[in-house]
Design goal:
Length: about 180
């Protein structure tokens, strides 16, 4: 039995979970998220708890059991607390500025790079070298942060670029001078 999949998910007050066939809808104070459950897995709501079960011990069923439970739990956390990821811009002359709902980066390119916030995601700038990506969908927040980091990854010699808050960049020794 899946250690994660068999755990019931408690539904906090103010959150409404509806199961309609394969569709699971989670409504909370921050918004609404929907999830389509894969074929063999079954989801039930009983006395303020969500229960995820699987019909057999096939390899696919076992792998989807814990995944489905975790995705539903992430949706419940998302509509109550939300998710956020911090990014830091490191480098001389590197900065970020808020332009409406978009942000504009100066990263040593010949032009500024503008990033629009996808639907359901808010980009917040603190100072001129910190950026926070926030939203209710954990996957969308992580993907947006990864796409922003991809613009200018931290390089190993001086550590310049966009990195996650708290990320440690392994540094290399440069060429030995004469």
């Amino acid at each position: 039995m899946s250690r994660i999949g068999r755990l019931p998910i408690d539904i906090p007050s103010g959150v409404d979970v509806k199961v309609d066939g394969r569709a699971v809808t989670v409504k909370g104070p921050k918004g609404e998220l929907a999830l389509t459950v894969a074929q063999p897995i079954e989801v039930k709501v009983e006395d303020n708890q969500v229960l995820v079960t699987r019909p057999d011990d096939e390899r696919e069923s076992r792998s989807l059991h814990g995944l489905t439970r975790t995705l539903i739990a992430n949706n419940i956390i998302g509509v109550t607390q939300g998710y956020s990821k911090g990014l830091e811009i490191v480098g001389t002359g590197y900065r970020v500025a808020q332009k409406g709902s978009a942000v504009e980066f100066a990263l040593g390119f010949s032009h500024p790079v503008t990033v629009e916030a996808p639907a359901g995601i808010t980009l917040t700038v603190e100072g001129n070298n910190k950026l926070t990506v926030a939203g209710i969908d954990k996957q969308a927040v992580g993907e947006t942060a990864a796409n922003i980091r991809k613009i200018k990854k931290p390089e190993p010699y001086k550590g310049k670029g966009i990195r996650y808050a708290g990320e440690v960049v392994r540094r290399k020794a440069g060429k030995a001078g004469k």
